[in-house]
């Protein structure tokens, strides 16, 4: 709030005493300076909740809003993020899509690809083990098994058991474009523009997500 606006809220006697060089005038100047940082935040408050505009330090907090906070789970509060902040922004931007497809192969693969920047994850259900899914991790993401496992455990149906294993037979997939750079898409994958910078494979048109039981 500007000094003039604060001054108008004072009784008339105080307004007359708040002239230049007065003690009250100096106090009003200090009040204006104290209000300035908060008013600057309020003037652009919507930026705090936009995945690609919010400060880096606020992105992890936004993951709680879209039920993706398991991605940043860490043993201590000051631990570094397990993935680049740009990919974390992609996950937040696609939070509604991931929630809609949670518990489906498409939802799990999309979450894994956004978090790791690697394509080629394979999901298999062995014929001799019903309600069990084997997630094969491409070599390019083999160094992020802890992150992959957390995502798989959160995205799988509750009644399904999972096994996460690396796939040595598959060649490395080309990584996506840097999450803080231009849009990128994996070779040979039909994609659609996403909310922000990342692109994700199109949802299967003939397989709508199942309603939770």
Quick overview of this protein structure:
The chain has eight helices and five strands; from the N terminus they run αααααααββαβββ.
Describe the structure.
With 213 residues, the chain is an alpha+beta fold. The strands form two sheets. A three-stranded mixed beta sheet has the order 1-2-3, covered by helices on one side. A two-stranded antiparallel ribbon has the order 4-5. It has eight helices and five strands; from the N terminus they run αααααααββαβββ. β2, α8 (145-155) and β3 form a beta-alpha-beta unit. The protein is elongated and about 90 Å long.
Instruction: Give the overall average pLDDT.
Output: 80
Categorize the overall geometry: elongated
Largest sheet: 3 strands, mixed
Number of helices: 8
Q: What is the ordering of alpha helices and beta strands? A: HHHHHHHEEHEEE
Structural class: alpha+beta
Rg to the nearest angstrom? 25 Å
DSSP strand (E) fraction?
5-15%
User: Which strand order does the major sheet show?
Assistant: 1-2-3
Q: List segments where confidence is low: pLDDT < 50 over at least 5 consecutive residues.
A: 170-195
The level of helicity is 25-40%
Distance between the termini: 52 Å
**Overall strand count:** 5
